[in-house]
Write a structure and sequence with these properties.
Elements: H1 3-8, E1 20-23, H2 29-39, H3 46-56, E2 61-68, E3 71-81, E4 88-96, H4 105-119, E5 124-130, H5 134-142, E6 146-155, E7 159-167, H6 172-182
Parallel strand pairs: 4-5
Antiparallel strand pairs: 1-2, 2-3, 3-4, 5-7, 6-7
Length: 183
């Protein structure tokens, strides 16, 4: 059983509630783009997503979607970065359809992304988050992320980004954290 399926399926093999997590494909981009445009004032273009998906093949990226009744309701992505002290994962984006927020979809996507990072051999992961995005801060803290710095005027040259890191994701203690979140 893949690590991803361990966290996003019930013991009987069914998906929790009505959302399943699966690899993002080009066919999903029609539904991803409106979510992206609604979530980020300076959103990625379709061609950026297509380029990122092309890099999934070489193992340097991971992009996932959350689907409900064949509709995309959220997505998230990772870059994998080689490091002599242990590979790292960088969360590129995570967004949920505004009509489906506060249903645990971002949590499920984060669990699956954590799984992918660990399976890839990463020992830490990182991200940038808007200073004003309290909901996102709360989500990331649940996963063990802690502020490590500030990127001044990172977003649209107006809003600061908080750089957050989570270390030791390859340990049994972190696996237990993920299991507790999944419960």
């Amino acid at each position: 059983m893949s690590v991803i399926s361990r966290f996003i399926t019930r013991a009987d093999g069914s998906a929790p509630d009505d959302v399943t997590i699966e690899p993002m494909r080009r066919k999903h981009l029609r539904a991803v783009m409106p979510i992206e445009q609604g979530a980020y004032p300076k959103s990625w273009s379709r061609s950026v997503f297509e380029s990122e998906l092309d890099q999934v093949k070489d193992g340097s990226r991971c992009y996932l979607v959350g689907c409900s009744d064949r509709s995309v309701v959220g997505y998230g992505g990772l870059w994998f970065v080689a490091d002599p002290d242990g590979d790292q994962a960088h969360i590129t984006n995570i967004a949920v359809d505004p009509d489906r927020r506060r249903e645990g979809i971002a949590t499920r996507l984060m669990l699956a992304l954590a799984d992918a990072a660990i399976a890839h051999g990463c020992v830490a992961w990182t991200l940038e988050v808007r200073a004003s995005s309290e909901g996102a801060h709360e989500l990331y803290r649940r996963f063990g992320f802690a502020p490590a710095g500030i990127r001044k005027r990172y977003y649209e040259n107006t809003e600061d980004a908080i750089v957050m890191w989570c270390h030791d994701i390859h340990t049994p203690a972190y696996a237990e954290r993920l299991r507790a979140i999944a419960r």
